[in-house]
Amino acid sequence: MQNPPQSECVIPGKIQAAQTFLYYCQAVESNNACGALPGDAPRAGGELSSLENVTKNAALDLLRNYFNGEIDFADGREVKKKPEEGDTGELAKAK
Questions:
Q1: Rounded to the nearest 10 degrees, what angle do helices 50-67 and 13-29 cross at?
Q2: What average pLDDT score do residues 15-39 get?
Q3: Are 29 and 38 in contact (CB under 8 A)?
Q4: For the chain, how many structural domains are there in total?
Q5: Which of 15, 40, 73, 95 shows a CA-CA span of 20 to 30 A to 66?
Q6: Burial 77-90 (b: 16+ CB within 10 A, else e)
Q7: Within its chain, how far is the Cα of 47 from the centroid?
Q8: Is residue 1 part of a domain?
Q9: Per the domain annotation, does 9 fall within a domain?
Q10: Is the pLDDT of residue 41 over 90?
C-alpha cells in the first residue's frame, strides 16, 4: 500500500501562530502549562490573564475567518495599481 500524496498546502505563519497560542491556552487552562511552548515556565492556576483572553479570542476569530474562507493571506507580493488621473497620493508619487 502506498502512502497518500503529500499536500503542497502552505499554512500561513499567522495561522500557525494562532494555533500555537491556542495550544498554550489549552495547556494553561488544563493546569498542564509546563512545556506548552519552548521556554515557558510552569504556571499553576488554570486561568488566563485578561490579555491572554483577548489574544485567545483574536486567535479564534482569525482561525474562524480563515477556515470559512473570509480572509486570505497573499504570498507577500504587493500588487501596485496604476494611479488614477488626478490622484496625488502615495501611488501617484511612486510612478
A1: 130
A2: 76
A3: no
A4: 1
A5: 40
A6: eeeeeeeeeeeeee
A7: 22
A8: no
A9: no
A10: no
In degrees, rounded to 5, the angle at the alpha carbon of residue 7 between the alpha carbons of residues 6 and 11 is: 130
Q: Which domain holds residue 52?
A: 18-67
Bigger pLDDT: 61 or 31? 61
CA separation for the pair 87, 92 (Å, rounded)? 6
Grid coordinates standing for 45? 492556576
The position carrying cell 470559512 is 68
Q: Cell triple for residue 34?
A: 509546563
* 82 within some domain: no
Highest mean pLDDT: which range of 14-23, 51-60, 77-86? 51-60
Whether 52 maps to a domain, the answer reads yes
